[in-house]
Design a protein that fits this description.
The protein has three helices and five strands. It is α+β, with helices and mostly antiparallel strands. The protein has one domain: 2-Layer Sandwich (Yope Regulator, Chain: A), CATH 3.30.1460. A five-stranded antiparallel sheet has the order 1-2-3-5-4, covered by helices on one side. Helix 1 crosses helix 3. It is globular, with a radius of gyration of 13 Å.
Length: 108
């Protein structure tokens, strides 16, 4: 799937989540409470930030790994499998889970 298609889907995904909004121009992301919690990288890959325990759970359940953006491993982020783009409702649930996690952190 092309980057442009992913950008459009990411925008639709964020529209399903009224508690936060899409940010960025060249690098699209979401943030709350002073913490970024999702990002679409230049390769069209989506990463969502979770607690350490939840990260481990999703690494195993999703068969995924750490999210890499612009050559850097993003600590706390899980790479969302490509197949998840087919179900934006479920993906919105994971994104809301990432939001809830950063809202539990101390404000930056």
């Amino acid at each position: 799937m092309s980057y442009e298609k992913k950008k459009a889907l990411y925008t639709k995904l964020i529209d399903k989540c009224p508690r936060f909004e899409l940010k960025g121009k060249s690098m699209l992301y979401t943030s709350a409470n002073g913490h970024m919690f999702s990002q679409l990288n230049k390769d069209g890959e989506l990463g969502i930030r979770f607690s350490k325990e939840v990260q481990q759970k999703y690494f195993e359940e999703w068969g995924s790994g750490h999210y890499i953006s612009y050559g850097a491993k993003m600590n706390g982020y899980v790479l969302v499998p490509e197949s998840f783009w087919d179900d934006l409702e479920t993906l919105a649930g994971y994104l809301n889970e990432g939001y809830d996690f950063v809202m539990s952190l101390e404000t930056k």
